[in-house]
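Today's session is about reading a structure prediction critically. Students often jump straight to the picture, but the first step is always the sequence itself: look for stretches that repeat, for charged clusters, for runs of hydrophobic residues. Only then move on to the predicted structure, which in these notes is written as discrete structure tokens rather than atom positions. Here is the chain we will use throughout the hour.
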Amino acid sequence: MCFNTLITHYTAANRIASTGAGAYNSAMLTALDLQACIDTHGIQAEIVRPRTDPAGGCATVAAAAQAMGVPADAIIKSVLFIIRRADPLLIIVNGERRIDQKTIARRLGLGRKQVKMATPAEVLAWTGFPVGAVPPFGHAQSLPTWVDPSVLEQGTILGGGGEASALVRMKVVDLIPVTHAEVVAVCG
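Below is the predicted structure for this chain, in token form.
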């Protein structure tokens, strides 16, 4: 069973136990859920909160970098794409780098119009987290994941921590084993 699947079962079981529901409750996940995932699976990561919360939290790379006093390339973003209107693909890039949808389409052997950035509602439905707070792991559902090679040039990275005022910090060497990601160049 893959890591994200284990996390999905753990998160769903917690939601069912806490709500008494007979099926997965689609309530939004939070930094507390992410911390529980980290603790349960012994992931070498920690949830951090900046001492001063910038206006709007840490939902953008610039805000997170400023709040944490690190360069923008130390911040990763987890961006969800929908392939052929049905299949999710999580892409992790760092800093202010832009993901090239044509590159994704070409790599998948598809036309450019078959690769779309997910809407905020789709991001929430697939990951359990709101846009701007999506962590690289611990999602509501198992997601195929690609990591741009530029991310691997960092020592320590910070990414979405489950809510706008939180970040998850981890060593980059732990990212691939935790996410089971494929390294694919996606930035133009």
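Discussion point for the tutorial: The longest helix spans residues 3-19.
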